[in-house]
Amino acid sequence: MDFLFVTAAALVDRDGRVLVQQRSRHRSMAGLWEFPGGKVEPDETPEHALIRELREELGIETEAACLAPAGFASEALGDRHLILLLYVCRKWKGIPAALDSDGIKWVRPVELHALDMPPADKPLIGLLEALV
Ligand SMILES: Nc1nc2c([nH]c(=O)n2[C@@H]2O[C@H](COP(=O)(O)OP(=O)(O)OP(=O)(O)O)[C@@H](O)[C@H]2O)c(=O)[nH]1
């Protein structure tokens, strides 16, 4: 089986809201709202891939100790199989900016149900409602 390992973060602010970003027009699944993150490269741990993606996509800095494993999703994706590792992150440096997306917003976990998200993300919403 050809697995695609992806890490993503639910950044949680002091009001218990979670950051989502809108996939830009030129990408697959364009327009959908997702958690910041991306593919784990062969030479990376999931945590270091996520730290890199948060820097590239939002311009923020965090560290492995601030990434708490929250859950995962397992979903067919074309001819591959996606394993999406979701972390909760409550501590970072900087102010998130939409550097690699069409926009970012902060929402309460219950509001995620009303957003257009990739299929793999749907089961993670209930998890965040319980966790955050
Ligand atoms: N970052 C992120 N990716 C997600 C989420 N849910 C989900 O199915 N994915 C999928 O996991 C993969 C993430 O890789 P990526 O963000 O680096 O994707 P990419 O634009 O480089 O891929 P592309 O070349 O297919 O457009 C994509 O196929 C994306 O659709 C999510 O919540 N966050």
Structural class: alpha+beta
Major sheet details:
4 strands, mixed
CATH superfamily, please? Nucleoside Triphosphate Pyrophosphohydrolase
Distance between the termini: 34 Å
Rg calc:
14 Å
Q: What count of structural domains? A: 1
Number of strands: 7
Strand content: 25-35%
GO biological process, one term: DNA replication
Organism: Sphingomonas cavernae
Catalytic activity: 8-oxo-dGTP + H2O = 8-oxo-dGMP + diphosphate + H(+); 8-oxo-GTP + H2O = 8-oxo-GMP + diphosphate + H(+)
Cofactor: Mg(2+)
Question: Helices and strands in order, then pairings?
Answer:
Elements (H helix, E strand, L loop, with lengths): L2 E9 L6 E5 L10 E2 L2 E3 L6 H13 L8 E11 L2 E10 L14 E4 L14 H10 L1
Parallel strand pairs: 1-6
Antiparallel strand pairs: 1-4, 2-3, 2-7, 5-6
The chain binds 8-OXO-guanosine-5'-triphosphate.
The site of 8-OXO-guanosine-5'-triphosphate (8GT) has 16 residues, from β1, β4 and β6.
In words, what does this structure look like?
The protein has one domain (3-131): Nucleoside Triphosphate Pyrophosphohydrolase, CATH 3.90.79. The longest helix has 13 residues, at 46-58. The relative contact order is 0.27. It starts with a strand and ends with a helix. It has a 4-stranded mixed β-sheet, sandwiched between helices. It is an alpha+beta fold. It is globular, with a radius of gyration of 14 Å. A hairpin with a 2-residue loop joins strand 5 and strand 6. It has helices spanning 46-58, 122-131, and strands at residues 3-11, 18-22, 33-34, 37-39, 67-77, 80-89, 104-107. The structure holds 8-OXO-guanosine-5'-triphosphate. The site of 8-OXO-guanosine-5'-triphosphate has 16 residues, from strand 1, strand 4 and strand 6.
